[in-house]
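Please complete every field before forwarding. Incomplete forms are returned to the sender.

SECTION A: IDENTIFIERS
Entry label: holo-444
Bound molecule: pyridoxal-5'-phosphate
Molecule representation: SMILES string

SECTION B: INPUTS
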Amino acid sequence: MTLTDRDRAVQAALAQGLVGPRQPVAGLLDVAGIRRSAAELRAAFAEFTAPGAQVLHAFAVKAASLVPVLRLLAQEGIGCEVASPGELALARAAGIPARHTVLDSPAKTLAELREALALGIAVNVDNHEELSRIDRMMASAPSTAPIGLRVNPQIGGGSIGAMSTATDTSKFGVPLRDPGAREWIVRACLDRPWLTRLHAHVGSQGMPLERMAEGVRALYDLAEEINEQAGGPRITTLDIGGGLPVNFSSDAVTPTYREYVALLRSAVPGLFSGRYGLVTEFGRSLLAKHGMVLARVEYAKWAGGRPIALTHAGAQVATRTVFAPASWPIRVAAYDDAGRPKTGAPVPQDIAGPCCFAGDLVAENRPLPRLESGDHVALLDTGAYYFSTHFAYNSLPRPGVYGYAPAPDGTFAFATVRTPQTLEELTAESGADHANALRSLALG
Ligand SMILES: *Cc1c(COP(=O)(O)O)cnc(C)c1O
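SECTION C: PREDICTED COMPLEX
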């Protein structure tokens, strides 16, 4: 059997003890793969944009909120899209310059807005109330931070409701097709010389590319209308968001950035004319294919005639997959105790996690070589949104995350991205320092 790089990385991770009886689950990231995707993203836009056009690719930090990942991407020329004080702190810890950072959150506080304007971070305003706040801030302390308005083009949703940000009633941005909204947006931009950007992120996984392009088209048309009325380039930059879907059913990378940009090029040719600076905010498509969760099979059992593998990867690391399995199915690869790919006839079986609720399954009735205790499962394509959406159910600790790359001696070198959470840290987060707090309150 020929081994893939992924298979060999699993073997090396087990040989080096990153996953074993004491640390039964970890995340692994393929560093070369992340670099490759970043390069493909840059190349796709570079190929289609006019020479000299300003393009900032800002990685959506929520997809992998890990400082070493942000810094790796920065080395590849990619900035950060942040949506909370925590994400901004991570971007700053990674050394991302303010001019490569974009703040998008639907509920920014006054303090967050003040900080962003003071730092010169690009801010995308979500709604009319937030715009009034910025008006007051600009009047008292003018800032040169780029400011944009998030627009919801209301072009409809995709196949996953929770991921669809451009429905009629989506909570994000100013709804472009509501009565009077377009006129309000145009006026708002004409009245404010510092409001120079428009932003739309029309949704993530499950959205057809054509619909995404329709959203970008609506954004572009709006910018053209504003600039025409302004008699000059008032809107100078278009932030087209992220949302390129990821294929979770095989190793194929599809759609590619190039396909999406080519489609945008034909749907919105003016976007690439160089008259507008561009910002993108891809998350999932940069990281998903380059990560896996590797977990030990603790026990193998039967129930009602069905084999069940009890592993250490469940809802705590694969929250969306466990709670919405129809929307977020993932591939599972089976390895033996030494990390060799399991062979043998596929048998439908449940791959269960360690959480104490019956639905804690990452795959149900999945045909795989029969798993036994001491084997391992790898949850594939989990590089985005799996290491950043830990679910603290059952006080299961956040697992370690390690980056890997081929070493000169033919094996793999690993670097720690995040240390496994210790029980001391977990206890402290659960109020250990306040152990007596409730007892003494009751005595008062
Ligand atoms: C989540 C999000 C993104 C990234 O979406 P992906 O599907 O991961 O590419 C980009 N922009 C905004 C505003 C987001 O909320």
